[in-house]
Each structure stands twice: as C-alpha cells, then as structure tokens.
Amino acid sequence: MSLSLEVPFEALDPSRIREQMSPLSLQLLASLSVLDETDSSNSALQRLPLEEQHAKAILAESQTRGRGRRQRHWYSPHGCNIYLSLGWCFTDGSLCLSTLPLVAAICTCRALERAGLQGQRIKWPNDVEVSGAKLAGILVELQASTSGPAHAVIGIGLNVSMPAGEPGTEKIDQPWTDIASNLDETLPPPDRNRVAARLLDELLSCVVQFRNEGFGAFADEWAALDLLNGQEVSVFQNDVSTNGIARGVNSDGALMIERVD
Questions:
Q1: Cβ burial 85-120 (10 Å sphere, 16+ → b, else e)
Q2: 245 near 260, Cβ under 8 Å?
Q3: Rounded Cα–Cα distance for residues 102 and 249 (Å)
Q4: Residue 155's beta-bridge partner residues?
Q5: Where are the beta strands (DSSP E) in the chain?
Q6: How many C-beta atoms surround the C-beta of residue 31 within 10 A?
Q7: Angle, nearest 10°, between helix axes 192-213 and 100-114?
Q8: Which end of the chain offers a freer environment for a tag, N or C, measured as fewer CB atoms within 10 Å?
C-alpha cells in the first residue's frame, strides 16, 4: 500500500530504535526485530517456541490481519504507525494478569507524553483516546497453566502519522486520530523510531515493576487516566446489559459500576 505524499516514509530500524532506548531497557530486551509485513505482530511472536518469546519484541511495518480485543480488525497500513508486540514470562502464579492490559495502556500514555502529546486518557480497559478519538489499542494474550509460568504477548497498535484520506481509513468504524494530528504545531513531526524506543522503554520498565509490585503500584496513575470514571456506561455481558456510573476498577482490573435503577 502506497503512502500519501504528505507523509514521508520513514522505515523502522532496529539499530535506530536501540540507540534511543535507555541502558536499562537494553539490558532487559532479549531481541528486537522489524518485519516488513506479517499477519499480526502478536501472531508472529506466538509462532516462536515459548522459551524464545520472553523479552523479545517484534515490530511490523504493516499487518494483513491486525486484530484487537474480541478479534476485531485493526487497520494496519504500511509505514504509518507502530504495531508492536513484546513477549514476557511471569513466573509468579499469584500475580493477577487480568490487570496487565491496563498497565500496558498506562505505558502507552507515558510514551505519548514523552513524545509531546497531552490530553490522552484510557477508556477501560485498554483503549487510549484523545478528545474522544481512538489513538491506540492494546491486546494482551496469555498462555498459562495452573502450575507453570504464564507467557504473555503484549500487543500495542499506535497511530503515528495516518492521513485521514489514506485508502482503507473509511472502513474504520469509530472515531480515530494519530499522534501527528495532536502535536503542538511548534513540534517536529513524530519520528516512528523514536516513538517506538519510548514505547519499549516504558513497556519494559512497567512489566518489571508489575512483576515485582503488581497492579497496586499503578492504581493511582490509572485513576488519573481513567476516562470513564464518573460517566454513565452500559456494559454488555452474556447478552445482559448493566447500566450505571463507572467507579474505577477493582484489584482484578474489572470495571466497577454503581447501578442506576
């Protein structure tokens, strides 16, 4: 797929990304690779043996079957955005991994702030929005047993520079935006390699803190970024609708609702 002339193509480069990552992140990262095209970065990582997935990051220039939660399609044009997956093995069976998507969303907001963005919030459980438009989504997939370690693949799709007229964008079924459209006009256009480095920095730092301290270490930050808190919501589960006021999340990451009769 060709890019609009307004957006110069800037290839993702593992060397350039590594140059901009922190020394601690480089110590944690086992390997980093960039694929020109794949079905999805999560699937590409999951095809590796489990023992090779830990601390491995895969980025893709484009995805033919990018997916979000509930197998929803994630539009993934070539050379516009960031499609990143990181594998991580958690050996502590008591860790509540249902909160990991929330932590990944917090990491994404941190990286966006470092990129110069303001006003980003999280729509439970793991959509990052700016001014009511979706900027990023997270898909965490787990392979776990009752007695062994849990292997997580954390996938993040982040719109960086995606022109509204790009072929295919008309199929997106919800309001969306990108980093480039929300930066202060005095700032330079976003550099995808720099954004990827910041995203990996935050993600690696967070998974280590999450492994050591659990979701409690992020609870206050989540509350500050929680877009739904205090808002009227309708939640559908097993074909049953629950209406009420969103009141944050519990220790398992589930949305708490004050029912309105």
A1: bbbbbbeeeebebebbbbbbbbbbbbbbeebebeeb
A2: yes
A3: 10
A4: 85, 139
A5: 31-35, 56-60, 82-90, 121-123, 127-130, 133-143, 150-158, 232-237, 240-249, 255-259
A6: 11
A7: 140
A8: C
pTM (2 d.p.) = 0.90
Task: Enter the DSSP assignment of 48.
Answer: S
Q: Look at the block and give the residue holding tokens 């997935």.
A: 53
Say how far apart CA 110 and CA 120 lie, in whole Å. 9
Q: Is the four-CA dihedral 160, 38, 100, 253 of positive or negative sign?
A: positive
* Distance between CA atoms of residues 245 and 241, nearest Å: 13
Residue indicated by tokens 């990018």: 66
DSSP state of 44: H
What residues contact 3, with CB distance under 8 A and at least 6 apart? 9, 77, 78, 79, 80, 166
For residue range 13-28, list pLDDT tens digits in order: 999 999 999 999 999 9
Tokens at 65, concatenated? 């079957």
Q: What is the dihedral of CA 27, 97, 115, 25, to 10 degrees?
A: 0
d(CA 32, CA 229): 37
Radius of gyration of the chain (CA): 18
d(C-alpha 145, C-alpha 142), whole Å: 10
Tokens 């944050």 belong to 248
